[in-house]
Amino acid sequence: MRLTPRRVVALGPLVVLVLAAGLLGSAWHTSASRVTSSPAGGSAPLAAAHSLPLQQLAGERIVYAYAGLRPPSSLLNAIRAGQAAGVIFFSNNIASPSQIRGVIAQLQRASLASPLHTRLLMMTDQEGGEVRRLPGAPALSEKQIGESPHGVTLARSAGDGAGRNLGSVGINVNLAPVLDVYRQAGNFIDEFGRSYSSSAASVAALGGAFISSQQRTGVAATAKHFPGLGAASRGQNTDLGPVTLRLSTSTLRSVDESPYRAALAAGVKLVMTSWAVYPALDPHRPAGLSPLVIGGELRGRLGFHGVTITDGIDAGAVTPFGSLARRSVLAAAAGADLILCAATNPAANSPSIGSTVLHAITSALSGNQLSRSAAQKAADRVLALRSQT
Q1: Mean pLDDT over residues 189-197, rounded?
Q2: Rounded Cα–Cα distance for residues 3 and 346 (Å)
Q3: Using one digit for the tens of pLDDT, what is the confidence trace for 86-105?
């Protein structure tokens, strides 16, 4: 997710991070054939995407959002119908750990009662420092970690802390770490301490350490924002409008994309794409709407086989590309496995955004505007990740 001032969560003075030896949480389960609990207490095999009705196939792309502390009945109905892959939580959804734990349990019960009998992806932004939706770890920002002589140790501790904290309430996907390599102090990504370093090698080492440590707790990590927002100036905010980053292919690959090699080596489960335009890769479309970026750079050149996810589909950077329905179809056609159906202003979040996207993708599949084969492969990746939670 992008960060505008209204999204910053002030959690008081940063506490000193205390490092303690101890065992990491349960190992990450990597088998895509793992079974999930059924409502009756038995087990149900992982659903096969090729057998899903069109609305459920489209639903495997939808990450819903809502405003307030209680999930609306429309969201619960969509989940029970098997038309949801996940839910994202913002600060206005969380009053306390016990409150959000109860909400997540309610949503998961609805999902286990759906035709798929599979748990949802429950996600939030828990980067560290000022960007935390849930109180607690990780206390340090990426920048503070990057400035420390003990950065790798701190990054490992932050990943473990984030995983344990999120896992304790049932959140199984963290939309972190940020792998952007910032160019100037105080620029868009450095303003709130969201980048580890201006050195690609340092970002790679620290991001890889965070990912490995967090995923050992069973919480999936998300490397973002591919291919990189580190060159964006302070005023270049994709939430608010179009952003073009005129970097050479050589710079993009040697600097901005470099940390993603370490992330892939660490086994990162998801990659979030940026909404900026990179003319060297695709002069016409933002990365998250570009098959040249997702299919060519991320999957083809770097060899990523995990789940791809968009940033918020309501961002100002993509509104010039048409209606919400059209943007969603473009994202799916470009190779986005998951579409984050969230508003730029979290107070405006509503399941209706996800419903609009669901109907648009269902219609595009029915009318052969989207490849059913590609949709099934995307759903297979998402269902495999859901089965691991």
Answers
A1: 97
A2: 11
A3: 999 999 999 999 999 999 99
CB-neighbour burial class of residue 202 (10 A; exposed 0-12, middle 13-18, buried 19+): buried
CB 217 within 8 A of CB 287: no
Q: How far apart are the first and last CA of the chain?
A: 21
Domain, as residue range, for 269: 53-387
Per DSSP, which regions of the chain are E strands? 36-37, 43-44, 62-64, 86-88, 121-124, 126-128, 131-132, 173-174, 220-226, 270-273, 277-278, 282-286, 307-312, 338-340
Name 278's bridge partners. Answer: 282
Average pLDDT of every residue of the chain: 90
Q: Residue 132 maps to which CATH number?
A: 3.20.20.300
pLDDT at 40 over 70: no
- In the block, residue with structure tokens 């828990």: 126
**pLDDT range class, residue 8, cuts 50, 70, 90:** very low
Structural domain total, the chain:
1
Measured CA to CA, the distance from residue 89 to residue 80 in angstroms comes to 19
